[in-house]
Amino acid sequence: MATATAPRTTGRQTAVKAGAKQPAQPRYEQLQTFYWSAKDKRGKVMKGEMMGKNENLVKAELRKQGLTPTTVSQKKAGMFAKRGKVSAQEIAIFARQLATMMQSGVPMVQAFDIIASGQKNAAMSEMLTAVKNEIEGGSSLYEALGKFPVQFDELFRNLVRAGEQAGVLDTVLDTVATYKENIEAIKGKIKKALFYPAAVIAVALIVSAILLIFVIPQFEAVFKGFGTDLPAFTQLYVKASKFMVAYWWVVLFIGIAAAVTFLQAYKRSPAFAHFLDRMMLKLPVIGGILHSSAIARFSRTLALTFKSGVPLVEALETVGGATGSMIYNEATKRIKEDVAVGYQLNIAMRQVNLFPPMVIQMTAIGEEAGSLDTMLTKVAEFFEREVNNAVDALSSLLEPFIMVIIGTMVGSMVIAMYLPIFKMAATV
């Protein structure tokens, strides 16, 4: 006897019932890395790695690719292996890959499958698989990306939404990929400008500490046999050496504690972060680079969002966070408020006293000519070149300056150690 089956209901339908409890969001099964070997249609043995939930699904994927699997085994994690984080560079590469596949006519779900299977970072592969599952469940790409707001920021999602609404998602993704690549290039330049001198000075401090703890005590033992008073300069370093030998752990602890306190204060105290950001912008050379970088990122981000069809006021809401500066972020909020009440963009920019006259003039021309996105793109390209040239010039200027610092720190110790010898030679 035939039995009637109850119609299937989706989780969304169940959730909207009166008094129904919202079901918990399902957790996606973590992907694992599998080694595989298979034969192609010619009988040639092929090997590789693939991300998957289990061996059977990996074998099914290999068969789908026209391969006959022979062995599939899970890759064992090393003792110190850990799950990686998704970097901004990986997001930029993903945007480029997805844009290219969609422009080639590959369906979105299949494109996500291909991109996810080629990821070496398990966290990235899992995230893309989760996004694909959301799309298969009926969500738009904008809604699916919204499940991962840390990796896909508001700017990225708003541009995707604009592309979906206009039916030009592939073009928007290609533009977003170019934007991400340019922004990451600027970030890399800024990191290079800040990291290089800090790293060299850190090495100089470590070398100085080694000399004070291990080398100077050896000289001191020799000086005791001279039977004469040591020069004041040498005595200064001998006392510093004795202090370091006795209390090196105190110096190390203070150094680590100061670094941790500084980082925690920067993360947890908006007032301290705002103060530090303002001081960095006032530095002689570094400040100019940071200003140019912020203006370049402001201009390129605003040009991209405006070109994608996002209204100007709404675009300004996401631009501030992309500048990489709290000062420019606050200025962008003030600009948005002025534009919202009817001011032209160039007038609002003039009021914050951060943008050079050339930027304001180019913005005004763009507004008058109806080509604001084009003018802002030109501004971004100009200041990106300024950042590149400034960083290259800074590297050239810092090299002799850093050599002077290292020479002074290490050379003064060497001179202090040889002064007693010169003094004895003079008395002979």
Automatic annotation (TrEMBL):
It comes from the Bacteria. It is a multi-pass membrane protein. One of its GO terms (biological process) is protein secretion by the type II secretion system. Residues 94-217, 298-420 form the Type II secretion system protein GspF domain. Residues 1-24 are annotated as: Disordered. Residues 1-13 have a biased composition (Polar residues). It is found in: Cell inner membrane. One of its GO terms (cellular component) is plasma membrane. The keyword Zinc-finger does not apply. The chain crosses the membrane at residues 194-216, 246-267, 279-298, 401-422. InterPro entries: GspF/PilC, T2SS_GspF/T4SS_PilC_CS, T2SS_GspF_dom, T2SS_GspF_sf. Belongs to the GSP F family. This is Type II secretory pathway protein. It comes from Ahniella affigens. The lineage of its organism: Bacteria, Pseudomonadati, Pseudomonadota, Gammaproteobacteria, Lysobacterales.
